[in-house]
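Final report, Chapter 2: Outcomes

The project's central promise was a pipeline that accepts a single protein chain and returns its three-dimensional structure in a standardized token representation, suitable for archiving and comparison. That pipeline is now operational. To close this chapter, we reproduce one record exactly as it appears in the project archive, with the input sequence first and the structure output second.
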Amino acid sequence: MNNNNLFDTEDLTGSFDTNDIEQNKAISAIAYIPILFIVPMLATQSPYAKFHANQGLIMTLTCIILNIASRILGFVLEWVPILPTLVSAVFSLTSLALLIIGIANAVQGKAKKLPIVGGLLNVLH
């Protein structure tokens, strides 16, 4: 994977019914707000919403891991005054970028995996 294709992830939109997509865009977007992937997981049987719920679960786990890593690195690197803050900011911006990309895909009717982490886990069907 080269840098030009980092955000050009696998697009599975064609494998979902267009009516399902249109009817479930809003609930699919909710899946990207951390922890709220549970809403489309439990509230609907929509395959499109379940896809986004799975991506939301991945994003939530990624945010948790980045938060823990940020705290550990902050502790280890505390002797360099600005470094812990910089690491925390980069990890926070990464989490925010995943959230924005996921919500944008959901409301645009796209079933695209999140960059880098989107293909790591397929739990919800």
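Archive annotation: Residues 3 and 116 are 11 Å apart (CA to CA).
This record, like all others produced under the grant, will remain available to the consortium after the project formally closes.
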